[in-house]
Amino acid sequence: GLAPPMPDASHADDRVDFYVLPDARPRGRQLLACRLAEKAYQQGYKAYIQTASREQAVLMDELLWTFKDIGFVPHVLASDPAGDSAPVVLGHPPLEPPAGAQMLINLDAAVPSFVDRFSRVAELVDQSPDVKEQARLRFRTYRERGYRPQSHRL
């Protein structure tokens, strides 16, 4: 086989984590994104959730309001004029993340073009064949770019 590419030193400290769900429940990945956004918020990180479309961003907006009975994760759509101020921002192509966002939570099929701006990336995978196949391609893309992605089975 081919030798692995030399790691790019600029990404050596960046973290890419693939979180693998045990099933393919509807909205499983989106609910996991809510939990990760909540954790990022509690730890003082500014998080950007990348979805595939405006409709998916709006769905995430609704889920972030309702996924817990108590507690709240302050968030805003990237298209909102206040998009820079909230600790959690929801976006979709072709929108760009706000400056200062440290953690990317990716629900899109592709690795976003702006991924290099983030020191932490969370990739959310379930057991549906399409999602797994897209995740394999993203995993390879990260390795080719010099990241060292880690997988975590949940």
Describe the structure.
The protein has 3 helices and 7 strands, in the order βαβαββββαβ. The chain has helices at residues 28-42, 54-66, 129-144; strands at 15-20, 47-50, 75-77, 88-91, 103-106, 120-125, 150-153. It is globular, with a radius of gyration of 15 Å. The mean pLDDT is 90.
Set out the fold topology.
Blueprint: E1 15-20, H1 28-42, E2 47-50, H2 54-66, E3 75-77, E4 88-91, E5 103-106, E6 120-125, H3 129-144, E7 150-153
Parallel strand pairs: 1-6, 1-7, 2-4, 2-5, 3-4, 5-6
Name the helicity range: 25-40%
Strand count, sense and barrel status of the largest sheet are: 7 strands, parallel
H and E order = EHEHEEEEHE
Low-pLDDT parts are none
What is the C-alpha radius of gyration, as a whole number of Å? 15 Å
Structure classification = alpha/beta
Mean pLDDT across every amino acid position = 90
Cα-to-Cα separation, first versus last residue: 31 Å
Which sequence of strands runs across the widest sheet?
3-4-2-5-6-1-7
Tally the beta strands. Answer: 7
Give the overall form: globular
- Beta strand %: 15-25%
- Number of distinct helices: 3
Question: What labels would you give this structure?
Answer:
154 residues; 29% helix; seven-stranded parallel β-sheet; globular; 3 helices; alpha/beta; single chain
Short description:
The protein has 154 residues and is α/β, with parallel strands linked by helices. The protein is 29% helix and 20% strand. The N and C termini lie far apart (31 Å).
